[in-house]
Amino acid sequence: MIWVKGLPFKISFFLWKVWKAKLSLDDFLRKLGYFMPSKYWCCADPKEESLLHLFFTSNVFRSVWSYFLRRAGIVLDGLSLHQAITKCWTAPVVPRLKPVLQALPACIVCKLWKRRNSLKYGKAVSMSRVIYQVSSTVQALVQLKKPGLRVPHKWLDLLTMIEQYTPRLKYDKVLWEFPSRGWIKVNTDGACRGNPGRSSIGFCIRDEVGDLIYAEGREISGETNNEAETVAIVEALKMCKNLNYFKIWLQTDSKLLKNIIEESWKPPWYITKHVEDILRLKEQSIIKVTHIFREWNTLADHFANYALDEGNTECHGF
Asked: What is the pTM of this model?
């Protein structure tokens, strides 16, 4: 697999060109029928410039590969360029270290290529500078994936840190809260099999002590999950109006709909009409909208899925 997850497209594409020997070096141009004087720019060796010599077999560049691969437990002796890259991709390391080793060959060949171009046009770049640049690139990639983590710059320290890293456990307390006196609480949900596919809505209305007043699950003609979530809110607010409830605490597990109803986000075009209905109903009542985790929206979720599995259902008059 040439494309490396997490790497910019430009770097991954460059690695593909190295793997396929498609770089415009002298040996490649000769295959196309262009014969010209050839010079190896990266060391005093007067050999013809070639991809293999440039990226792997020359002593100066081989030292860069050795620096990184040796510290990762990969022995370079006897390996070809393709084998060295494959070893990085398939090395038996802990899973969290795999993305780093998979990105390493692309970083190395990219920096070696930049050094070659600098030398060709008169700018000296030492090998220690190349090692520093590769380390900096890998450090930046890890930092991008783990923004809150302090990532060391030295390659050996970086490997040690990732091997010993233990993610910090993050948790949220999930609970269903009772509405205030004189208020009702409405939980809504939408279901869609396939997205697009068969869709349904589910919602339930509870009073201030948590007793169920009304619940409904019904299949609708919408075809996407967002449509189902929106229609569920519209129908729930209409039912509240019919039952003469005007102080409503609306809870949905869709952050998209919460932000749209609060008018901080613009709605997608295909639910604009339903959103207009929600905002019109909102003007006729006192409505508080909050997001709830799915684990405490299970009753509304159950009614939405029941409508698809068993048929429409309506519960009231408890």
From this structure: 0.55
DSSP class per residue in the chain: --SPTTS-HHHHHHHHHHHTT-S--HHHHHHTT--------SSS--SPP-HHIIIIISHHHHHHHHHHHHHTT---TT--HHHHHHHHHH----GGGHHHHHHHHHHHHHHHHHHHHHHHTT----HHHHHHHHHHHHHHHHHHHSTTS---SSHHHHHHHHHH--PPP------PPPPPTT-EEEEEEEEEETTTTEEEEEEEEE-TTS-EEEEEEEEES--SHHHHHHHHHHHHHHHHHHTT--EEEEEES-HHHHHHHTTSSPPPGGGHHHHHHHHHHHHTSEEEEEE--GGG-HHHHHHHHHHHHT--EEEE--
Question: How does the average pLDDT of the chain come out, rounded?
Answer: 85
Q: pLDDT per residue over 113-130, tens digit each?
A: 888 778 777 787 788 888
pLDDT at 94: 84
